[in-house]
């Protein structure tokens, strides 16, 4: 694999990557680290044991290919009331444990800082939720790159809310307002924006303010999008923030090119459930017609109540379409009993297939039988679906997901909304956020109908898919971005070496 910039052992860049400990942040930061290693950077990923298990097989494969990459595991501290090995925040993490996990990560800051000093990297790439790393890098006299989750569009929209406060100029949560100052005229309601914009005292307001302040002091930011997907917002973001930034996506297909990489990405080595491993879902998909299957996945952070699971199940069954549904987490009791009975019914009719827990999403999305995706609008699934050329049924819930829906439905016009109207906090549900089976069914029917609107949506997403594949090839937009970063960082290292010699 090509090595950018000056060659030679003494000039080889050494980097430390520090990912956050939730799957939606952990997996992409590790993928970006692996991309840097592909192009000649010596990479160390700092991580705790349970989180290392999620991606260690990928690192082992990369190392066996001759890439200079490794994990450096730092033991998670013992926290009163926190079970051993619970170090990751996902849909199955009890809410009362989240604060304890974050307490443990706060304790680890000192050990991470010491690792920086001991390893003497040339630069650090850390997640946005570690704002302290910008000062740690400054103490060592090295650059820090910040990984920013989400789309450029989402962060441009949030900047609009912070700067112009249009949401404070409407009379109710359901009244529309214009997102001021963006390249497109787009409207939202107060009920769709994160609670920190409606409640000035909300804890996330302080967290995000700290994140943005640390970004301003960074060498620059990296995103997992690609220029052809949202280039106008990439440029807008650079203008309004005044910071350097690079698009490096689609990262998943760039680094996971081998079937073994795709099959194991983001998954600890565990025994497959009998009948529900790769052979089961693959054989089922192989039996289906091209673009006939609806892939349904709501990410690693959602845990639906029984009432919403019932609506999803009926919508899928009533649609008459074949579907593959990833059930990432279901509470024991009524919810699990309902889904298990539903699974028996659709398996017997051969109309549906359920995968419990983790799913090999990259392999599923590239299967020719898959024709569309129902998504929570998490950025990982969005980009991976677009990369695969698949249109989307959009169902945002929390975080920046309603902004991502605006990009997909109103700007790019490659998605159909189910009509979710209310932002909610992670894993919080009430009757007001329940999406009815009729609304889910309408979106599915429109996207899978083969009608004129459906065909236009598919045409647009196929064009973006082709652009995504070119972006990571030699001369492509993301390839050139990576080359630019590495060459700049090598230049900074050489300048530092020359100063020391002088």
UniProtKB/TrEMBL annotation:
EC number(s) reported in the record: 2.4.1.-
CDD domains named in the record: GT1_Gtf-like
Keyword Transcription among UniProt keywords: no
Keywords: Glycosyltransferase, Transferase
One MF annotation (Gene Ontology) recorded for this entry: glycosyltransferase activity
InterPro entries documented for this protein: UDP_glucos_trans, UDP_glycos_trans_CS
Entries under PANTHER family matching the protein: GLYCOSYLTRANSFERASE
Entry's family note: Belongs to the UDP-glycosyltransferase family.
UniProt-recorded name of the protein: Glycosyltransferase
Organism: Flemingia macrophylla
């Amino acid at each position: 694999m090509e090595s950018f910039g000056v060659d030679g052992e003494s000039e080889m860049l050494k980097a430390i990557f520090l990912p956050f400990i939730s799957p939606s942040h952990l997996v992409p930061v590790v993928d970006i680290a692996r991309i840097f290693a592909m192009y000649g950077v010596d990479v160390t990923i700092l991580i705790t044991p349970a989180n290392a298990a999620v991606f260690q097989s990928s690192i082992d494969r990369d190392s066996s290919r001759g890439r200079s990459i490794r994990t450096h595991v730092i033991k998670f501290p013992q926290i009163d009331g926190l079970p051993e090995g619970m170090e990751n925040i996902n849909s199955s993490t009890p809410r009362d444990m989240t604060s304890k996990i974050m307490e443990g990560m706060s304790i680890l800051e000192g050990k991470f800082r010491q690792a920086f000093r001991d390893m003497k990297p040339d630069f650090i790439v850390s997640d946005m939720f570690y704002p302290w790393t910008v000062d740690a890098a400054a103490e060592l006299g090295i650059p820090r790159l910040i990984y920013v989750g989400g789309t450029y569009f989402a962060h441009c929209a949030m900047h609009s809310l912070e700067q112009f406060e249009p949401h404070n100029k409407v009379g109710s949560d359901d009244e529309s307002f214009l997102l001021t100052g963006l390249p497109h005229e787009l409207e939202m309601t107060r009920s769709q924006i994160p609670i920190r914009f409606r409640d000035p005292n909300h804890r996330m307001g302080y967290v995000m303010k700290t994140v943005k302040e640390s970004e301003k002091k960074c060498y620059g930011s990296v995103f997992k999008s690609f220029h052809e997907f949202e280039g106008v917002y990439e440029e807008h973001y650079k203008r309004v923030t005044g910071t350097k930034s690079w698009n490096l996506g689609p990262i998943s297909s760039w680094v996971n090119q081998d079937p073994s990489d795709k099959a194991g990405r983001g998954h600890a080595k565990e025994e497959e459930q009998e009948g529900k491993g790769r052979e089961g879902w693959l054989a089922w998909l192989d039996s289906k017609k091209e673009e006939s299957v609806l892939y349904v996945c709501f990410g690693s952070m959602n845990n639906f109540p029984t009432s919403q699971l019932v609506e999803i199940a009926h919508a899928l069954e009533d649609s008459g379409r074949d579907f593959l549904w990833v059930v990432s987490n279901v509470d024991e009791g009524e919810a699990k009993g309902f889904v298990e009975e539903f699974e028996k019914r659709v398996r017997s009719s051969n109309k549906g297939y359920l995968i419990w827990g983790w799913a090999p999403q990259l392999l599923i999305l590239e299967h020719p039988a898959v024709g569309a995706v129902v998504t929570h609008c998490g950025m990982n699934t969005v980009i991976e679906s677009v990369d695969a050329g698949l249109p989307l049924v959009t169902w945002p819930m929390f975080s920046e997901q309603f902004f991502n829906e605006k990009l997909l439905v109103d700007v790019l016009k490659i998605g159909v909304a189910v009509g979710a109207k209310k932002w909610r906090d992670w894993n919080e549900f009430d009757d007001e956020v329940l999406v009815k089976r009729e609304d889910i069914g309408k979106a599915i029917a429109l996207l899978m109908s083969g009608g004129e609107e459906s065909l236009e949506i598919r045409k647009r997403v196929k064009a973006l898919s082709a652009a995504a594949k070119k972006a990571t090839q030699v001369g492509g937009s993301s390839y050139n971005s990576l080359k630019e970063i590495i060459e700049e960082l090598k230049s900074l290292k050489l300048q530092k070496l020359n100063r020391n010699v002088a």
